[in-house]
Amino acid sequence: MKLEQLLERLEYTCVQGSLDREISGIANDSRQVVPGTLFFSIRGAVTDGHTYAAEVAEKGAVALLVEEPVEVPESVTVIQVKDTRYAMALVSAAWYDYPAEKLKVIGITGTKGKTTTTYMIKSILESAGHKVGLIGTIETIIGETHIPSSNTTPESVKIQEYFHRMLEDGCDMAVMEVSSQGLMLNRTAGIPFEIGIFTNIEPDHIGPAEHKSFEDYMHCKGLLFRQCRIGIVNGDDEHLDQVLAGHTCKVETFGLSEKNDLRAENLKMVHKPGYLGISYHAAGMIDMDVEIDIPGKFSVYNSLAAIAVCLHFKVREADIKTALKQAKVKGRVELVKVSDDFTLMIDYAHNAMSLESLLTTLREYEPGRLVCLFGCGGNRSKARRFEMAEVSGRLADFTIITSDNPRFEKPEDILDDIESGIKKTDGKYVKIADRKEAIRYAILHGQPGDVIVLAGKGHEDYQEIEGKKYHMDERELIQEILEEENLR
Ligand SMILES: CC(=O)N[C@H]1[C@@H](OP(=O)(O)OP(=O)(O)OC[C@H]2O[C@@H](n3ccc(=O)[nH]c3=O)[C@H](O)[C@@H]2O)O[C@H](CO)[C@@H](O)[C@@H]1O[C@H](C)C(=O)N[C@@H](C)C(=O)N[C@H](CCC(=O)O)C(=O)O
Ligand SMILES: Nc1ncnc2c1ncn2[C@@H]1O[C@H](COP(=O)(O)OP(=O)(O)OP(=O)(O)O)[C@@H](O)[C@H]1O
Ligand SMILES: N[C@H](CCC[C@H](N)C(=O)O)C(=O)O
Ligand SMILES: [Mg+2]
């Protein structure tokens, strides 16, 4: 494709060289450059892509997109723009012939609930005959292909490539998680979202590597609502007005309070041994009873958002009901059957905020005891250890402190930090560093009516120790334990 054509939607200055050049590939990583490549110089958190200019020219890059002057041979075209990340998103879209314009793209932002809601939407839309691609924290799904993720919202070059592959695979829709980082770093720039969803917002992701303040975090999340046709938003969130500031889309609200366009009434928590679910009546935009096998009040919010989206695509009530009943998300309040007496689940809560919301909503099921097993990742925020310990000590009847991903730290040191936090509460606990043994303890000590949560690892199928990832899947550990203990 010709360089000039790739730049058609951009404002730019051609600093040197010709625009009449054939481009055979695009890349923002010098290690992927081959002769004929257009290279995007991105200023990153670790390094600056501009420093690779000479190296990529040497490797045969024919054009460079930059924010500041670089020194390369005259034969290389240099295009200067204000923001290379923004430009990269638009050029990537052009490279794949604007695939998002041929799909209906649904984007979801919010502090919690994004992953869960994407799977619910995919499940409902597919029950109505659509073919839906998905991009998110766990994976990207294109037909039968599952690609594990390293970011919730990948870099724009990847997103556009995935959209292109979705179209080739016959998808007519795409549902994706849009993290605030993704919005801030223009990973989603130029995508014409048909629908944007806002789940909720709480102070999170604030720090030197992420957002500078809560205001900045809210502003970034709000950018989605300047870039979508319809905004479907949580009308109960206290920060909604700030998130919607400057929006350009039509807005519909969902939630529990009366004022919302789509609301849930008559919530009923369903607790049977081995099963936790929730049922409610959806009113407003529709009038129907809903039953979900994913526990927690937050499942009501996630499913309301999914229903509101699907109503725009004329999905039949019966299809919505069946699909929601079947929706399951790996490692998100995922129930695993181990006993007829008590209930066990795997969840991804790995900070105080999500652990608090999880344990609070599980309490509403009036369990015999609420048991919480968790550890904390090594080489991550230390504060998390004391905060999660405080939450578990206060809200669970019993805590099993164990390892998560120790990374480069000594597991015992992490457990000691957690223990010192829990000691500040009157919570009862036991410390078992080996996660499998900790799970064994949980299962063998399960009492009738208990709800046991294995928190923190969610969908992960590994344990990271000293830079190496060892295979470890809690579902498999549970099955091994049941066999070893003759409980199956
Ligand atoms: C802070 C941040 O956003 N980092 C992301 C970013 O890396 P970076 O900007 O730091 O890149 P860098 O390493 O400094 O390199 C700068 C440029 O030089 C290039 N380079 C680098 C080395 C080299 O030899 N040659 C070369 O050309 C790089 O390709 C890049 O273009 O670009 C990488 C590739 O796209 C991302 O994987 C990486 O995410 C890291 C893993 C990360 O932790 N990001 C977090 C903050 C994040 O984005 N999280 C959100 C939210 C998660 C959620 O709440 O669900 C997400 O969407 O995942
Ligand atoms: N709407 C919600 N509000 C609050 N908590 C939720 C909500 N939905 C799910 N949760 C809880 O938060 C955890 C993470 O949910 P989910 O993965 O769907 O969120 P996410 O927004 O994708 O998070 P992340 O930013 O970590 O990818 C779940 O395991 C559950 O405990
Ligand atoms: N992406 C997050 C998830 C961590 C999940 C938890 N299992 C841990 O290792 O702390 C991180 O790397 O901090
Ligand atoms: Mg997610």
Q: What does this molecule look like?
A:
The protein has 488 residues and is of the alpha/beta class. The protein has three domains: 3-95, 3-Layer(aba) Sandwich (Udp-n-acetylmuramoylalanyl-d-glutamate--2,6- Diaminopimelate Ligase, Chain: A, domain 1), CATH 3.40.1390; 99-326, Mur-like, catalytic domain (UDP-N-acetylmuramoyl-L-alanine:D-glutamate ligase), CATH 3.40.1190; 334-484, Protein-Tyrosine Phosphatase, Chain A (Alpha-Beta Complex), CATH 3.90.190. 31% of the residues lie in helices and 25% in strands. The chain is built from 15 helices and 24 strands. The protein has helices spanning 3-6, 53-58, 84-95, 114-127, 156-168, 180-184, 214-222, 240-244, 297-311, 317-326, 352-363, 383-395, 411-422, 435-444, 474-484; strands spanning 13-16, 25-27, 37-40, 63-66, 77-80, 104-109, 132-135, 139-142, 145-148, 173-177, 193-198, 228-234, 250-255, 262-272, 275-284, 288-292, 334-336, 343-347, 370-374, 398-401, 428-431, 451-455, 462-465, 468-471. Strands 9-8-7-10-6-11-12-13-14-15-16 form an eleven-stranded mixed sheet, sandwiched between helices. A six-stranded mixed sheet has the order 17-18-22-19-20-21, with helices on both faces. Helix 8 links the parallel strand 12 and strand 13. The longest helix is centred in the middle third of the chain and has 15 residues, at 297-311. The protein is globular. The structure holds ligand UAG, adenosine-5'-triphosphate, 2,6-diaminopimelic acid and magnesium ion.
